[in-house]
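Reopening this ticket.

The earlier resolution said the output was attached, but the attachment link was broken on my side. Pasting everything inline this time so it's all in one place.
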Amino acid sequence: MSRNDNLNYEIGGTIGGSAEGNQGIYEESSSAKHPLGQKLELIDGRAFRYANFDAACTVGKLVGPDFSTGGTVEISDGTIATGGAGSKVVTITASGSSGPPADFQGVSANDYAGSYLHITDGAGEGFCYRVKTNGAASSDAVEFTLYDPIITALSSGASDFSLTPSPVNNVHAATAAVDFLVSGVTMVSMTSGYFGWIQTKGVATCLSEGAWAVGQQLTLGDSVAGAAQAKDAQTEPIVGYAMAVTADTEYGAIKLNNLLD
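Inline output:
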């Protein structure tokens, strides 16, 4: 092998090969071909995660999860049932809470699948549990099934909680004004409801909001959905740095931080 040979194979795992069900990084699928969140890492340092889209999105856009269907801010007035120590099931009633959402009415089955349940105050505080599935809301009550058993029993009126969405479920083009988490960059234009790979690390191409200078730290854009901009505030999530001079509204080379690791 010549020292100048270029290789582009994966590290651990299969993609685009002969195994049935493999989906390439430039493909989309109406059905899941891999588990959500599955990681693909190539020998050149680029990394990808398998994601589901809740809205159509074009190529080269920063995406993040829909907080309104996968997360909540702290809820302190919820009624908690079936949340005993050792159980993987907890039923929570959220009514008139601070949201989003304002309550659990209208929640569909598995809206919170892959989300993280944080116990923020009171009985069981400090623990974080990953949500495996959830049932549809009955009035304001939702039953959550967790991957792991509850360590310290939760108690109605004595346990506050919040939910953080899965970074790879229900993703869409993100903006700093409304989104709290950047998951990756689209590799191809995606159809709403479809599945595909998003790039989370390494050299990528991304839409610019404003001009970039070489070496500038880049953050999620303020107003253009899916764009990256030069950092102008400490509170903005940093996504990487510019590798080339890029004009406003063009697509430029970006070195992505390791966004999901």
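Reporter confirms the inline version is readable. The CA atoms of residues 2 and 8 lie 15 Å apart. The first strand starts at residue 28 and ends at 29.
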